[in-house]
Design brief:
Helices cover 39% and strands 17% of the residues. It contains eleven helices and ten strands. The longest helix has 15 residues. The protein is an alpha/beta fold.
């Protein structure tokens, strides 16, 4: 049994934080490593965030020095700690039907396409976005087997684990209609009061997998009618953005759509896409 912390004394985590120092050299190494592994660019103002998140990893591993932790990573390029390192430093801000203007465009596009409508959600996070996509497609295309499919990916294994479970607080679903809430979710009872779970009938249309957008080739079941890559490019530098967009090109079907985040502008960094709506892009080769 763990003895309680004496009154007036800081917790072990705070005590460790007080002992540790994140030097300029260590911060630069962290920035280099996360850029090499995940393409994420960390600015100086992210230093406190980096410190607070990695202190937890050092505590879990029983380490008391950032240099020892970084040395451990660099000594073994295949250690599972790399995934924990990436998970710690990725940002996952999402919501159901976030940037809602995209979903009517998606619905209209899907209704006009023939065959199986396939879509890739390239930054799935904890699942709110791919489930919003699935709800939109189920509303307009129905739930006939083989009519549509969502492939959802992220680099962070922890958020994907939550996404697969499909359990959320009821107050997170305020953007859904009462009909959608009833049709696609089950309400928790008893100790699960206030929680909802995605119905299996909807979840069956979504496949979750880990994908690193820095990979030279994506293990994804393309080509797709649409790709959602929203609010993730902002963490990459221009060269990385260009490389990723170039790899998207063969993964989009003719007249396919690429959805971007509200603060992202792909027209300035790639001639292979043209802006055809509010943060919605098409392939330039399809433009007539």
């Amino acid at each position: 049994m763990t003895s309680p912390v004496p009154k007036g004394q800081p917790s072990p985590l705070i005590q460790m934080a007080q002992r540790l120092t994140l030097s300029d050299a260590h911060f630069r190494r962290i920035c280099q490593l996360i850029y090499q592994r995940a393409g994420i660019v960390l600015a100086e103002h992210k230093r406190d965030m980096v410190y607070n998140r990695l202190v937890r990893r050092l505590r879990d591993l029983g380490l008391d020095d950032f240099g020892r932790y970084l040395g451990m990573l660099e000594a073994d390029q295949n250690t599972s700690e790399w995934q924990a390192f990436i998970n710690s430093l990725t940002t996952n801000l999402t919501a159901f039907f976030r940037e809602g203007h995209h979903f009517p465009i998606l619905a209209d596009h899907a209704k006009k396409r023939t065959g199986e409508y396939r879509i890739w959600c390239a930054a799935a996070s904890t699942g709110e976005e791919p489930y919003s996509i699935a709800i939109t497609l189920a509303d307009v295309l129905g739930q006939t087997p083989g009519r549509w499919k969502v492939f959802a990916s992220d680099i962070d294994t922890e958020v994907l684990q939550k996404a697969r479970k499909g359990i959320y607080r009821l107050d997170e679903l305020k953007t859904l209609s009462p009909q959608q809430l009833q049709r696609y979710f089950m309400r928790g009872t008893g100790p699960h009061q206030g929680l909802v779970r995605v119905r299996q009938e909807l979840a069956n249309y979504i496949e979750f997998n880990v994908v690193n957008l820095l990979d030279k080739q994506y293990q994804v079941p393309g080509p797709f009618d649409a790709i959602f890559c929203r609010n993730v490019m902002i963490y990459f530098d221009k060269n990385t953005q260009q490389d990723i967009l170039h790899r998207f090109v063969p993964l989009l079907k003719p007249q396919g759509l690429l959805f971007a985040g509200h603060s992202e502008n792909f027209s300035n960094i790639s001639r292979e896409f043209w802006l055809r709506g509010q943060t919605v892009y098409g392939l330039s080769k399809d433009k007539v």
